[in-house]
Amino acid sequence: QVQLVESGGGSVQAGGSLRLSCAVSGYSFSSNCMAWFRQASGKEREAVAAIWPGSTYYSDSVKGRFAISQDNAKNTMSLQMNSLKPEDTDMYYCAASYRTFCPYGLRTGTFNYWGQGTQVTVSS
């Protein structure tokens, strides 16, 4: 079966960096829409970055600081997070869709599979 497993979360001071990884097993989503979402307790899950063949997307809040990438040989997706801010503190989830592009709006319903999440905490 398809599984997504995140790793790389942790605690860091403001201005620091973290790299999240999402290991995929059971299917190759190299030709499909994948994304990173984040969610704070009591809030809706929001997309911060997405990748699909030939394109990427970043939310305004992370544009210029985060970079999404895929390693098709290793069947992984990564999120390099630089210049972290306290407001980046959240649980981060990777998600995968059978769609071959990421539709405008990036709603959670677009995605077929989710990881269990990894916590990112940024202190001031």
Write structural notes for this entry.
With 124 residues, this protein is an all-beta fold. Helices cover 0% and strands 49% of the residues. The strands form 2 sheets. Strands 2, 4, 5, 6, 9, 10 and 11 form a 7-stranded mixed beta sheet that branches. A hairpin with a 2-residue loop joins strand 5 (46-52) and strand 6. The model has no long low-confidence stretch (mean pLDDT 96).
Entry summary:
With 124 residues, the chain is mostly beta strands.
* Average predicted confidence as pLDDT: 96
Work out the helicity level. Answer: under 10%
In terms of DSSP E residues, the strand content is over 45%
The largest pleated sheet is described as: 7 strands, mixed
Structural class: mainly beta
Low-confidence stretches: none
Instruction: Tell me the number of strands.
Output: 11
Output the radius of gyration. Answer: 13 Å
Total helical elements: 0
N-to-C terminal Cα separation, in Å? 41 Å
Order of helices and strands: EEEEEEEEEEE
